[in-house]
Design brief:
Helix content is 52%, strand content 0%. It has 15 helices and no strands. The chain has helices spanning 3-17, 27-36, 49-56, 60-67, 71-85, 92-106, 113-130, 142-154, 166-173, 191-202, 208-217, 230-243, 281-294, 303-311, 328-340. The model is unreliable at 180-188 and 343-348 (pLDDT under 50).
Length: 348
């Protein structure tokens, strides 16, 4: 049974089992309900709940969540499943070839994810036009490349696996510069620039707070500018991407899929840095969060170890700076609390 038909059947059976909260139906209740309706053609060959989850490569709660989500969301999630199923042909050598090909066509020493995706579409279109029965060129998508690289870096591509470093690793395989050359000669001055750079680095639409965290963590100058709501900036950014023929996300991802925007992943451009005196305690806390998330669980986070870490960062303050905000211990505790209970941000 096709994945789309499986999701449709899951939706219908779970509604039969509980028409108020179908997303809470257990596997046992689902199987019992399906058994009661097996005489109906659409449920005759329906597998057990555990087998459905195994086939779709998601947990059972996630299967229910997808089954009761909008069609666009289902299509996207099934697209991810298809991408994973097609990974067998995608070797590191194939990734290196694809990136090198695109970089050569663009005459650049490196390529960003947006640059690669745009060039890929053009190359495939040209290839299809040159062959009567369809193109022979096969180039992986950005999502496929990132999935393979996450597996190489973290040993798995399961949901929740960090995305940081996956694109840089792919560029390394191809022998390209790990910091993609940006067409923006000036630092980010408004949310459109920052949204683009954030999406390029993480592959997701960021909320207002996440964009600020991203800018602070990566030492990117950023000014939101006066008199314009965040939603309008987001809509303008999406319109510009659509005009350029680039993928346009529907919305920020669910919380459990969000990357850590407080990590410095080297997204800042050469010769740019945030100008600041660390007068804002939130900026100090953001830097400490970066330190804490990079500290092994077996190692105790101390001020002296932070100081050693800060010396290796391009723009991390000396711990003496923290005295004006209550000192190291107080800021470290606030950073720790933010990691445990991040603030809700619904303005994206």
């Amino acid at each position: 049974m096709k994945p789309s038909l499986l999701l449709q059947a899951v939706r219908e059976v779970s509604l039969l089992a509980n028409n108020v909260h179908p997303e809470t139906v257990s596997q046992r209740v689902f199987d019992a309900t399906a058994e009661q309706h097996k005489h109906e053609p659409q449920f005759a060959d329906l597998p057990l709940a555990r087998d459905i989850a195994r086939k779709l490569k998601y947990s059972w709660p996630t299967v229910l969540e997808i089954a009761h989500s909008p069609l666009k969301t289902q299509t996207r999630r099934l697209g991810q499943l298809t991408a994973e199923a097609e990974q067998d042909w995608l070797t590191p050598e194939r990734i290196a070839y694809a990136l090198t090909l695109v970089a050569h066509r663009l005459n650049l020493p490196s390529v960003s994810q947006a640059q690669y995706e745009t060039a890929r579409e053009k190359l495939l279109a040209q290839n299809r036009a040159n062959w009567l029965h369809g193109g022979r060129l096969k180039l992986p998508t950005v999502a496929q490349i990132r999935a393979v690289m996450r597996t190489e870096i973290y040993g798995t591509d399961r949901r929740g696996t960090p995305t940081a470093g996956s694109w840089s690793r792919a560029l390394e395989l191809a022998g390209l510069q790990t910091k993609a050359v940006s067409k923006m000669k000036n630092p980010a001055r408004n949310p459109i620039d920052l949204l683009e750079r954030c999406y390029d680095a993480h592959g997701f639409q960021a909320t207002s707070q996440e964009a600020r965290d991203f800018a602070k963590a990566n030492n990117i100058p950023y000014s939101r500018g006066p008199g314009k709501p965040w939603r309008e900036w987001v809509q303008e950014w999406k319109t510009k991407r659509k005009e350029r023929g680039l993928p346009v996300p529907d919305r920020p991802p669910p919380r459990k899929l969000k990357p850590d925007y407080t990590l410095n992943i080297g997204a800042g451009l050469p010769d740019e840095h945030r100008q600041g005196s660390w007068a804002d305690p939130n900026e100090c806390i953001t830097i400490i969060i970066s330190y804490l998330t990079q500290t092994p669980s077996s190692e105790h986070a101390t001020m002296s170890r932070y100081a050693a870490w800060a010396k290796k960062q391009p723009h991390a303050p000396d711990p003496a700076t923290f005295k004006r905000h209550g000192g190291w211990d107080q800021l470290r505790e606030q950073a720790h609390q933010r990691i445990l209970k991040p603030d809700s941000d619904l303005d994206g």
